[in-house]
Amino acid sequence: MANNFENKVALITGAASGIGLAIAKKLSDKGAKLALLDQNITAIQQLQVELRGEVEIYAVDVSDEQQVKNAVDAIQTKFGALHILINSAGIVGDTNIKSHDAKVQNLKTVFDVNFIGSFLTSKYCIPLMLQQSYGRILHIASIAGKEGNAGMLAYSASKAAVIAMAKVQGKEYAETGITINALAPAVVQTAMVDQMPLEQVSYMTDKIPMKRCGSLSEVASMAAFIVSDENSFSTGFTFDLSGGRATY
Q1: What domains are defined for the chain?
Q2: What is the pTM (predicted TM-score) of this model?
């Protein structure tokens, strides 16, 4: 079966909702063992009931280095291996504001979750993957990280940093059996998007030639391919999922 994940252990951050949840369900259906991280412990507890196979949950603030290290250590102890890391935890921060009105604290908060969080999980997962000469890491970025969305300085800049990190890491570990890529969706219909001002969502959607949001199932399907055994010659790359918006 294509993209079979039997006997694979996948760590997914931001797994309680949105893209992280959709990917967790997809990999669960394909037989993966899951380690799910989120701050919303109540929501991920429900996933232990809903998802098939082995599922372990961890209440973690991905911007806290000690919490991340402890979780990765616990996952290694529990499963004895770690094959896949998918960084989906993310926040938008302030939107629909000009850059001169942006608050430094908001920028720091968004970067802590979106960039530092993805850095910390990879920092502690990569050594485990090096030991087994195999790994798949996917950082969920955004088209905003390529093109910049007006009114979303913190989010756009943090996702640009995630894309740069995927490029750096992909080169650094290219000969180790570990692939490290990013995925850059255009606006996807999630609860996070539902909370954004309508003007901001319209601004983003109007830039998409398909004139619609992406779906969670479309993101999950592409993510599953990127972290599969079949995708073995792409690393340091940012995959497009933008309905025709991306131009490079």
Answers
A1: 9-238 (3.40.50.720)
A2: 0.93
